[in-house]
Design brief:
The complex is a heterodimer of chains A (586) and B (314). Chain A is built from 19 helices and 22 strands. Chain A is 30% helix and 16% strand. Chain B has 2 domains: 76 residues; 208 residues, MetI-like (MetI-like fold). Chain B is 75% helix and 0% strand. In chain B, α8 crosses α10. The chains are: A alpha+beta (586), B mainly alpha (314).
Chain lengths: 586, 314
Amino acid sequence: MIKKLLSLLLLVLTFASCTKKRDLNEKVLNLTVESKVKGLDPINTGDTYSSTEVARVYEGLLQYHYLKRPYELIPNLAKEMPKVSKDELTYTFKLKEGVLFHDNKCFKDGKGREMVAEDVVYSFKRLADPRNNAIGWWILDGKLEGLNEWREKQKRLEKTNYDEEVSGLKALDKYTVQFKLKEKSPQFLYALPMTYTMVVPREAVEHYGKEFLNNPVGTGPFMTDTYTQSNKIVYHKNPNYRKETYPSEGTPEDKAAGLLEDAGKTLPLVEKLVVVIQPESQPRWLSFEKGKLDYISIPKDNFETVVAPNKGVTEEYAKKGIVLQISPDLDVTYIAFNHEDPLFKDNVKLKQALSLAYDREKSNELFYNGNGILAQTPIPPGIAGYDKDYKNPYMQYNLEKAKKLLTEAGYPRGKGLPVIKYDTLAKTVSRQMGEFFKKQMAKIGVNVQVVTNTWPQLTEKVHKRQTQTYGMAWVGDYPDAENFLQLLYGPNSSPGPNGSNFNDPGFNKLFDKATKMQPSPLRAKLYEELAQKYSEKVPWILGVHRTSFVVKHGWLENYKFSTFNYGNVKYWDVDLKKKKKLLEKL
Amino acid sequence: MSSTWNYIFRRVLYLIPVLLGVCFLIFFLFNVVAGDPTGILLGKHATASQMAELREQLGLNKPLIAQYFDVVKSAFTFDFGRSWATKQQISQMIAQGAIPSLSVTLPGFFLATVVSILLATIVAYFRGKGIDLFIRILTIAMMSISSLVYIMVFQWLFAFELGWFEISGFEYSFPEVMPYITLPIIIWIVLSLGPDTRFYRTLILDEMYQDYVRTARAKGVSEKKILLKHVLRNAMIPIITYTVVQLPFLLLGSILLESFFSIPGLGNMVINALNASDFPVLKAITVLSAVAYIVFTLVQDILYTVVDPRVKLK
């Protein structure tokens, strides 16, 4: 009996220790995501993780140029950039011919059919369908002529009628789509590379019904069979992917980094993608060090081991062929004042005093390893409206000036000022940030109470205008200053994205004017004016624009960081010979 | 036997009031304590009108009594519908999550229980001697270390440095799954050994000072026989009480182990649902846990009659 048990134990341990052998004969990208992916339906991808996965399978009319910065829109499913009417209200797109959907049983004979203009129209209507209540509806809400009316009408019908025409959304012929806007909105084009508007075939949606989110059928470079909510997603190269080639234009830095060596090569460059879900940073980091992941954002705890003080990769990691990429993110962190609260509604000096008492450099060191760019306005570097020479006089640490302004605001040394509530998340770093804010404010006699919340609680408080101050970050949806400035636009007040409920008629008027203009130096000037003039009224205490630190193995080729990393995986390659050599060094 | 069946039937009937109570509790917590879920569900661009539409779609505008009946209906039919946050079928989510969770917790729990009882028996046999002292100190030391430390150190040492196991991941087939789950199972056992061994030692020692043990000794029965034949058997009632009530919670997995080892179990599902105000998922997990708890306490009662013929179910 004991012998049998021991044999069984030995057998189990043998299986247990049989770690997977790597297949170094096939070009496979090994990637990771930090959170479970909800599903692969384009209209409901509200988070970065799901969006990234959706964009491996689906495509939109436009995409961002892979290498160029500032970000530039180029055609994807569209054959060329749209023709825009003189009144700037009508956008006409010609589609690429011969683009095929993935082979799938929802089609006749299982063969993917050609993607046509009607598919684009259907996909947009699906996003607007009230029965779908899609997360991405905001991108079209109030934009296209007749679409909101169509949506309202569908609510009254028993079943959505996709065949009913919408005047602002038409397929003119098999390969031509026309959009008519209600009013000028150059930002409309930014909706077209977003996952929400990616093109889906009607047959697949109808065939799979509610299970469509687990049965993706797109035109993208990769395809997957049924998606399950597991810890891994495996994609294979789409054998019928249209002829698309690696870009041949880029910056001199791109050329020096070898990012133009594959110019003209047919995409995608690898056969397979394996995406694993790893919520914790330790296993992500260990997997990267073992060579089981091709690249990774450096976890905070590993930062100093891999990044040298000169912002290069440390010698130990350089020997292993590991390469560091530092790139600015399109985002901003801030502490918002709720302007519905009587304390902050009209007391600009109080807000300015609190802002001057907040040591942002120290905060940057403590929470971002000193790598954030101190924000002077909400607009991050890399987009029109950002002025690198501008210094916001109220975003500089100056305790004396802060105390003076606090006195002028009616609260000398904080006397008479009630305890200010600071709402944040019940996460370690968020709590630490709250304690840091409290400590800073105490220096001028202001008492702060840190209130921790779950994410749903904080969201609800902001939506119901129940906060006084709260910590937040905004990651850009698209590279236009409008996406950041709209956070201070009055009509967007809670429950809209303007959680600080800042509502200045002057700002609103200028915002309305600037955001309807086509990109131009004049518009950039207006954006600058909006950002600078009103940031000095301190609707927020600005934090930083964060910086992304990514390390990659030497065998991963053509990787370039992008805030809009949707679909970029088609450009990446794996050098198998290099991989074999470098793996020995790990 | 018929009285046993009567007892089982009655206990199954108890499920009805218990489920009604559970439904009321989760309905109250969700509607009174928790807030409006639509803001979180619609993301950072939620608008007032879209939130109102979603409230209507989710049935949150219905009278409270009607909403309560919806909860009761889903609890009694086990049809929990779809997740509000992911739009996935909840029964499928649970089925897909239960296997990975149980593949770690069940063997971990079983092995930890066997080893702990074994160790507790040994230390009880050698009570007051060096080995007893050593194991007691060791178990206290093991309990003093945070579970996070075990997880992080074991993962780094055995999976990364020594390469004996996979760092993280999961496979749905055997034996492919073994390199992924063995280390989490070992950690589960290590985490359980300290408290379990101490608990079982106390139970066994309690029995060892009973009158029947003294009588057996007086009759000249060997110490080994007393321990294995009499003491262990009598200690089984509290052991069963302790172990069986833990079984339903094994289904929920271990949140930390699942996170660190990327095991797609139910532990993370509950956390994600809490963060997303995903009421249908929370409802499903709570109802299933309640049902499992009742079923396992019933199993516990039946097991009492097996290990102790004096116990009758009436």
